[in-house]
Design goal:
The chain is of the alpha+beta class. It has one domain. Helices cover 34% and strands 16% of the residues. Strands 1-2-3 form a 3-stranded antiparallel beta sheet, with helices on one face. A hairpin with a 6-residue loop joins strand 2 and strand 3.
Length: 83
């Protein structure tokens, strides 16, 4: 979820596509989802580029660094009961 002074937008956790967009000045209770409003495509694009792309790139970069370093070390406990 990202918010500007006027808009609030949420994206899908898997698809990374906009799922919700609200005009917080005119709809502070978030009753009308404007995500499919054609006239607001510039708002969706701007929020995607300015907020979500930067965030997701930073997350992906951190995950890549961990993977390149051999991943997160895990151990299997020998005393874990077998079923």
């Amino acid at each position: 979820m990202a918010r500007t002074e006027k808009y609030k937008m949420a994206i899908g956790s898997i698809t990374r596509e906009p799922q919700e967009l609200y005009d917080m000045e005119n709809d502070p209770n978030e009753l009308k989802n404007l995500v499919n409003e054609p006239s607001l495509s510039h708002v969706r694009d701007e929020m995607q580029n300015e907020h979500f792309d930067k965030l997701l790139n930073n997350i992906n970069k951190a995950q890549l660094e961990v993977a390149e370093a051999g991943g997160i070390p895990t151990t299997i406990h020998e005393d874990y009961p077998a079923y």
